[in-house]
Amino acid sequence: MADDNSHTNDTDGIGSTPGFRTAPEERSLTDDESSQGLFDDLLSGEPIFENKEVLRPSYTPHELPHRSDQINKMATILVSALRGETPSNILIYGKTGTGKTASAKFVSQELEQTSSKYSVPCEVEYINCEVTDTQYRVLAQLANKFIEKNHEWIDDRLDELTDLHDRVESIDDDRREMDATKPSTTEADEHQSPQSADETDDLDPPETNGDDGTDEAPSTATDSVSEPTVQFQEESVVSSDGDDDDGGVADEASGVDESTPTHPLADTPFDSIDAVTERIEELEDDRDSFEEVPMTGWPTDRVYSVFFDAVDYSERVVVIMLDEIDKLVEKSGDDTLYNLSRMNSELENSRVSIMGISNDLKFTDFLDPRVKSSLGEEEIVFPPYDANQLRDILQHRSDVAFKGDALSPDVIPLCAAFAAQEHGDARRALDLLRTAGELAERSQTDTIVEDHVRQAQDKIELDRVVEVVRTLPTQSKLVLFSIIMLEQNGVHSINTGEVYNIYKRLCQELDTDVLTQRRVTDLISELDMLGIVNAVVVSKGRYGRTKEISLSVPLEETEVVLRSDSRLSDIDDVQPFVQARFDN
Ligand SMILES: Nc1ncnc2c1ncn2[C@@H]1O[C@H](COP(=O)(O)OP(=O)(O)OP(=O)(O)O)[C@@H](O)[C@H]1O
């Protein structure tokens, strides 16, 4: 790297390779010649998008049409957090893409902004339980979040207190210097103010912070050195601190010299520099006591207790937002929810409220009745969008996403209609619109037309199939492969027995366990539910009933995806015996 620079900067060329001595003009000429124009054609097309990001799932819209009822209901419940009360727990239900997460995040942002506006400590913690799906991980993530917040809070206080300490110290130094140079003045002053000394004797020491300020609770947002909970009168500081050695403010603030600026400790909960030092040490100890939780390895009750202490370190209302909460319950039961929901009875300073989001309406059936009733104190349902609502949503986004006349008039209605058929999924509608735009961009046209939407629909469907097939368990892949082989060999209306025969041979070929026919029948039903095969039960009269199976996805593409699994890539060898079987 350094060498390259030395070459290019080497004006006299000594010691440089000739190739590096190209003059700038020459260099650009060379670059132009070497470029194949790979990107030029693409760049030259008039871009369709103004801002593609607003169509991506990661974008949180500022406006959520057709969700004002749900948003208002959430806000009505959560407003108690701003009054320092515990909001009821909320369960949010609705099918995928109905705006649950977007609405909940929108409300949380508003809540946090209002809380900082009014200096009410209120925080929302978001956890995606699809990713964080065990009690340990949920608690560890929460614990570390609050430890981080506590550290930040402590660091801010330490900065303020250290600064205060330094200022007091420098004033004390000045005062000592003055004492040293003018001893008689001080003496005279002391005699001059007997009255103030009497007065100060009568004044109580600061009530709320004791004599050292150590119980200055770290608890409220207003609780800082700059905004103390206890307002000190200068005189009271004077009176409570007659001792010369402690560096207090008595002499300083005694009002002898009217031109003396306000002492730094005035208007703070501290009556002496020692009290400040003590508080600094205390905060440093607190800081050290918060040990970050590792992502594995501790007993869960230890993680819980660290989380508990970290949350309870200061007075605040915490809303824990558990998105995809059903995944957490499915993976690791309801222990997490049980522990979180009973926390409030033990917390001293803080309050915790849970907001669960799920697209599985039935997951509460698996909950302990106590957890179920506590969690479902308030329930908010997000119904699917209809085509008109989806149209509004798309219209809002497309105004920002696309260039002026990039959309032909039938595009948004068509995207909305397709997505409305898919259980009113706004995510699907936005995906369709974005993909249609990308396809139009790729074909270098200026306008997105209906055909782009239809192509986008096919592409998204294929992408979905690819993703579903790719992530199937191996046994299901083998069952699917058997069906594909039968179809490839011209067998239609395939029955379970035929699938099972091929499946067994594939298992032998690949040296894997062979499941029972009953289990294979279940796997076929699962593939049916995923929309990969179509299995209909038909009556064969006195021969009973049988399943007729056919493939619902494109054969070749699906086979390619299956073969991309290294275990299934050599299945070619099986082909002859499939043929042989049909000859029977
Ligand atoms: N009313 C709306 N206005 C604008 N955009 C919306 C609206 N509802 C949903 N969306 C958008 O649709 C997409 C999906 O929404 P969201 O993630 O909130 O759905 P969800 O109900 O939480 O789905 P899932 O259960 O799959 O997580 C997001 O990009 C979101 O911004």
From TrEMBL:
Keywords of this entry: ATP-binding, DNA replication, Nucleotide-binding
Compositional bias of kind Basic and acidic residues: 1-10, 170-180
UniProt biased composition (Acidic residues): 198-215
Compositional bias (Polar residues): 217-233
Region of interest called Disordered, as start-end residue ranges on this chain: 1-40, 170-272
Residues annotated as binding ATP: T98, G99, K100, T101, A102, Y385, R397
GO biological process: DNA replication
AAA+ ATPase domain boundaries: 86-386
Start and end residues of each Cdc6 C-terminal domain: 480-562
GO MF term list: ATP binding
Biological role: Involved in regulation of DNA replication.
Family: Belongs to the CDC6/cdc18 family.
PANTHER family: CELL DIVISION CONTROL PROTEIN 6-RELATED (PTHR10763), ORC1-TYPE DNA REPLICATION PROTEIN (PTHR10763:SF22)
Protein name as catalogued: ORC1-type DNA replication protein
Source organism per UniProt: Halovivax ruber (strain DSM 18193 / JCM 13892 / XH-70)
